[in-house]
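Comment on the following before class.
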Amino acid sequence: MDEIRNKIAESGIITLDLNDYRPSGARVMIDIANQLWQGIVLKEKDYRDWIKSVDWATFQGQHVAIQCSADAIVPSWAFMLLAAQLEQYATSLFYGDLNGLEESLYKEAIDKESFDEYANKRVMLKGCGDSVPMGSYLYLTERLTPLVKSLMFGEPCSAVPVFKARN
């Protein structure tokens, strides 16, 4: 009888999991739509009073997304006032929603890596059933394609070829 061989292990494919690049820390959203007068306009005095009433230390060590979900014109200084309060507590600040924040955090983590160890290697980017933002796959593909011999997506048992270097 022939010996059972693990052909996937023998293939030399390196599996890369984007979840390994997920920055730690809680993610929270501040939506200033709740501070709009009649849902349409921001009154500076009321807004500044609200800012004074918030305990910004509760955002210590958190990644904070700031947005206004209402269809209103909000002056830039409104977001700047929040940033000035949060900068000493929050780990990071982002203008936009939580999905945008998450994508930004992944991009920052990916940008910090060199990926030189994957040069001329066959790389499998794991991606089935995870909660990684879609843009992160784009960022990582952009970083890996100049280096790798081939790039695949999925699991070794059901890989989708994404890129193959020309000889």
